[in-house]
């Protein structure tokens, strides 16, 4: 049996889950935009976007505080610890209409998390490749010794102080 005072808390939970969904989508879009900006090599746009990403992170922290508060309230109502309380338990205790609403929001959040993780991985791979290529370029410009290049016969080692062109051949 659910107490009547749970209704506004469940409504607030639905609002927070909707905000979580929107925030995850915003953060995913920001990562996608970061990838595009990196490929365009637009440093000013990177700085602007990084500021927006910091704001999204601050919003995430505030949202987590609200969610934690709601979880603690609901855990108290259902006489369990906040760690033991989860959405599945809440869904089981709610009337079908409210339970379906919570279930739907939970599904949307899970989908957005999956999309965000995919975009995060793609962006991380791009950043890793950018770092690797930049390192290779720096090494070729300021080598510590011989640089390996390739000609028609395979690897060919040359020293940076010997020049790029061989005028004797």
Structural descriptors:
single chain; 169 residues; mainly alpha; Methane Monooxygenase Hydroxylase, Chain G, domain 1; elongated
How would you describe the overall organization of this protein?
The chain has 169 residues and is mostly helical. It has one domain: Methane Monooxygenase Hydroxylase, Chain G, domain 1 (Up-down Bundle). It is built from 4 helices and 2 strands. Strands 1-2 form a two-stranded antiparallel ribbon. A hairpin with a 2-residue loop joins strand 1 (146-151) and strand 2 (154-159). The longest helix has 46 residues, at 96-141. The chain is elongated and about 80 Å long. The model is unreliable at 162-169 (pLDDT under 50).
What are the SSEs and their pairings?
Elements: H1 6-40, H2 43-77, H3 87-93, H4 96-141, E1 146-151, E2 154-159
- The topology string of helices and strands comes to HHHHEE
Under CATH at level 1, the class stands as: Mainly Alpha
Our count of domains comes out at 1
Would you tell me the overall average pLDDT? 86
Helix content: over 70%
Provide the low-confidence segments as ranges.
162-169
| CATH level-3 fold name | Methane Monooxygenase Hydroxylase, Chain G, domain 1
What characteristic shape results from the CA principal axes?
elongated
Largest sheet report: 2 strands, antiparallel
Task: Give the neighbour order of strands across the main sheet.
Answer: 1-2
Rg measurement, Å: 27 Å
The number of distinct helices, counting runs of at least 4 residues, comes to 4
Distance between the ends: 92 Å
> Which CATH architecture?
Up-down Bundle
């Amino acid at each position: 049996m659910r107490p009547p005072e749970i209704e506004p808390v469940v409504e607030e939970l639905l609002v927070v889950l909707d905000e979580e969904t929107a925030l995850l989508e915003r953060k995913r879009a920001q990562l996608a935009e970061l990838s595009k900006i990196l490929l365009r090599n637009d440093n000013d746009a990177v700085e602007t976007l990084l500021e927006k990403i910091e704001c999204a992170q601050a919003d995430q922290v505030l949202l987590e505080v609200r969610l934690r508060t709601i979880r603690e309230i609901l855990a108290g109502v259902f006489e369990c610890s906040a760690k033991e309380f989860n959405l599945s338990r809440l869904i089981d205790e709610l009337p079908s209409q409210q339970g379906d609403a919570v279930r739907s929001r939970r599904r949307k959040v899970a989908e957005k998390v999956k999309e965000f993780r995919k975009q995060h991985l793609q962006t991380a791979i791009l950043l890793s490749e950018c770092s690797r290529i930049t390192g290779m370029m720096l090494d070729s410009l300021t080598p510590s010794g011989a640089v390996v290049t390739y000609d028609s016969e395979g690897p060919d080692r040359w020293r940076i102080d010997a020049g790029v062109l061989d005028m004797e051949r």
